[in-house]
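Q: Here's a chain of 226 amino acids. Please give me its 3D structure as tokens.
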Amino acid sequence: MSRTTRVPLTVGLAASAAAVAALALGSAPATAAAPAGSLPTAAGSTTVTPAGHGFKATLSGKATLKAGSVTVTCTVSVASGTVPAAPANHNPAGPVSSPISAPTYSSCTSSMPGVTPTVTTSGAWTVTMQHGAPSTATLTVPAGGLVVKTTGLASCTVVTAPTAPAPVGGTWTNGAPPTLGFTNASVPVKVTGGFGCPTSATASVFNAVYTVANTTSPAQHITVSP
């Protein structure tokens, strides 16, 4: 089932609106390449607890999306999922993955006068946790998993992950509550449309922090450990 939300957005930010898909659990800058001749570092073990518990990721404060000189600010974004049941919540040599709901987005404003887009999310989304220093989370946006269609001053269609599922990395911090932090995330997009549509844009960049709550047992916190 798809989810549809209408939010204000600037004409020049159709591509930036597409990047809102990754706000569900966000993204961090790509890891620098290893020096030539070096061997890749093996992934360590990961355990996500409590096994089988539901969780909800809620935007804390605001998320900003920037395309060129224009910024979009969103104050509401939510996604939910479930920690895998034991023993699938533990991987002795790598990450642990969980399916999540297609995220929802609302209360977004632009630094410029805007049009009204329709934001629709769909498909099978996942988040993958890897223990480390810091621990990381990778959101996988399904191919075409978020589509933005604008009406008004410009009629544009923006598709995220237009040709294949797109992995987007973030940082996990254990705490009370735990958080997911995302910095300068890049999400691939394809933009089509007429006058006013940023058809040359191929990516958008954003920043956000989410708190994660245990919906099965609120007194227990979701934790990523070895």
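Q: Can you summarize the key feature?
A: The chain has a mean pLDDT of 77.
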